[in-house]
Amino acid sequence: MTLARTGATGQGGLDPQVLAFTSSLVPDLQLVREDLLGSLAHVVMLSKQGLIPRADAQALHRALVELWKTRPTLPAEEDVHMAVESHLGTLVGEAARRLHTARSRNDQVALDLKLHVREQCRLAVVNLTALAQSLAERAARERSTVLPAYTHRQRAQPVSLAYWFLSWTFGFLRDAEAFAFALGQANVSPLGVGAVSGTSLANDREVTRSLLGFARATDNGLDTVADRDFALDYLHAASKCLVRVGRLGAEVVDYASAEFGVVKLGDAIACGSSMMPQKKNPDVFELLRGNSARQLGDLMGLFALMKGLPAGYFRDLQEDRGPILATSARLAGCLPILQLALKQITFDAERCRALVSDGSTQATDLAEALVAQGLPFRDAYARVGALVAQSRTLGVPLAQLTLEQAQAVVPQADAAWLRKLDPSAAAKAKLSAGSTGEAALDTQLSTVTTRIQMLNAAAGQVPSLDALFSRLSEATP
Ligand code: ARG
After folding, report:
1. Is 79 a pocket residue for ligand 1 (Cβ < 6 Å)?
2. Structurally, what CATH architecture does the domain formed by 106-353+446-464 represent?
3. Distance (Å, whole) CA 109 – CA 84
4. Which residue has the higher pLDDT, 10 or 358?
5. For residue 5, what pLDDT is reported?
6. CATH of domain 360-428
7. What percent of the chain shows pLDDT beyond 90?
8. Residues 416-432: tens digit of each pLDDT
9. Average pLDDT score over residue span 273-286
10. Span 6-101 CATH architecture
11. From CA 237, how far away is CA 242, in angstroms rounded?
């Protein structure tokens, strides 16, 4: 695309190759809606303050509304701000020359990014609470399936499959909370600080703040034009979230292997091999894990961009668009696919049970039963350890030892004690808060519901871009 340059951006004579190099138009075009909303609010404020004639403001307002509705191809200008201004010139003529009164592209780009980050954080919260809700519903249906929980990738203790689903649910709720935090950081209006020091014209920042639904306005323009902390918070939340998505992906990839045999992939999400006719591969979960790698690259990229920037605006900041927009596209791709794919995995309850049926993962439960009879834990641990050793020597799984064989090592052993080896009983018997026990699972399920409600309430407080447009298109100057 050949870029044009209006007199509006300074002296002419810029080498076209330099103009192409310095332009941000291509990534900026993904921020057109945000840019139009900012201009709508700005025009209303300019008119209200008597900074431009009402007729010009009305013409500009009408043209901006039309641009939102028709989304014409914008002229190839240096960036989206100039492209919109230049296009308005063709629609309203001279009035367009008043649009940039008491405004700079430096506060404008900060505004576009804040509106974008706020909207994306809102969507991430909505997507993550929907995911948490579906995981919790699944958990409630899978309470009676038991499978091993792993430590060191060795079978450790039997747990309810509900507990496994809830473990990921709580992680995703923390992610949603991190996005809600980033949303709050983005919810502060930068509009009206101008290039760096403010303006001598009567720009009422409170008007634009309120029209754009921001919680408050920024406090210092020198800080504002160089600030991308809100974007770092957004990318940090996205990175934690996508690393978790990748970890869950890794778990499913393992579980779907014949070696574990715990998970079956539905045909709708199982990918094949071009050569091996027998293959049903978990590509979706592998790609989710792969996406988290690129997310970390974007987080580091934005941090590196900010590192070493002194106070004030620098053109370096234009490079923020790559990591921010890539993050938004990645979240929009990964979160719905994860929810879809998780609905397509089933757990093989028999196989899960088989993995904990030899009894060894219930050894701690045997020891705790001895503690309940008054034995010091260390003594109980040693006795049960000896019993495990004996079962290995005899080549008989713990759960298949006879009462006599058990009593030969643990004199306190009786039939009730050996029943602790039942994996479901062992899982259900956990009493501590946050455990896989029955009452603890009830508590966890209701905690999830409460936290989802709080998160949705927070997300519901900020207007969507579409809702903002409805509001602003009616706020005629
Ligand atoms: N295209 C620029 C950006 O994305 C807009 C701000 C330009 N400001 C300036 N002083 N040249 O950051």
Report:
1. yes
2. Up-down Bundle (1.20)
3. 13
4. 358
5. 73
6. 1.10.40.30
7. 94
8. 999 999 999 999 999 99
9. 92
10. Orthogonal Bundle (1.10)
11. 9
Whether 24 lines ligand 1, by a CB cut-off of 6 Å, is: yes
Determine whether 81 is an active site residue: no
* Residue having the nearest C-alpha atom to atom 3 of ligand 1: 318
Q: What is the pTM of this model?
A: 0.97
pLDDT at position 31 is 98
The token pair that represents 400 in the structure block: 């298949």
Q: Region 168-186: what's the mean pLDDT?
A: 98
At 396, the amino acid letter reads V
Largest CA distance in the chain: 100
* Distance between Cα 109 and ligand 1 center (Å): 7
Average the pLDDT over 221-245 and give the result.
Answer: 98
Please confirm, yes or no, whether 273 is among the known catalytic residues: yes
The confidence band for 279, taking pLDDT boundaries of 50, 70 and 90, is confident
Same fold, 106-353+446-464 and 360-428: no
Report CA-CA distances (Å) from 235 to 96, 120, 178, 299, 461: 36, 11, 10, 6, 21
- Strand pairing partners for 154? 151
Question: Residue 14: is its pLDDT beyond 90?
Answer: no
Domain limits of the chain?
A: 6-101, 106-353+446-464, 360-428
Q: Read off the pLDDT band of 462 (50, 70, 90).
A: very high
Ligand 1: centre distance to CA 318 (Å):
6
Nearest CA to ligand 1 atom 7: 105
